[in-house]
Amino acid sequence: MKTKLGISVALLGTAVYFLALVSSWVPTVLVAGYILLFETNEWLKTSAIKAVAVIIFFGVLSAIIGLIPNAITLVDNVFSIFNGNFTLAFVSKIVTLINTILNIAQKLLLLALGFKALHQGTVGFGIIDKLIARHMPRD
Predict the structure, then answer these.
(1) pLDDT tens digit string along 25-66?
(2) Mean pLDDT taken over the chain
(3) Of 35, 50, 112, 126, which residue is least crowded by CB atoms under 10 Å?
(4) Tell me, what DSSP letter sits at residue 110?
């Protein structure tokens, strides 16, 4: 099946995943928006939404993990009002490690999704698949 761009649905689906892998979220959202507005293939629309959802999911997780050092800084600032000190230096290293693991997991997932998309397949990702199924029901 061809898209309105003249390329196969599988190739455009692969492109949206690989775009999510190698670029920021803006180009991915723009391509996903094009797909949602102008293309009719349901698998392709689901793939576009899934690519954006993966980026958002890992971004939110990274932001939540990033709050931990901020909370420690807040406690340290409160302690400093009373001439105290509160630091947990190792927490920054743990947060960096967790963010690195999340980054690797995101890249591996997007690579797997991109290669499966070449054959109009997908890789299951529990929470995201459930959200897409709930908010984008098939007719």
Answers:
(1) 899 999 999 999 999 999 999 999 999 999 999 999 999 999
(2) 91
(3) 126
(4) H
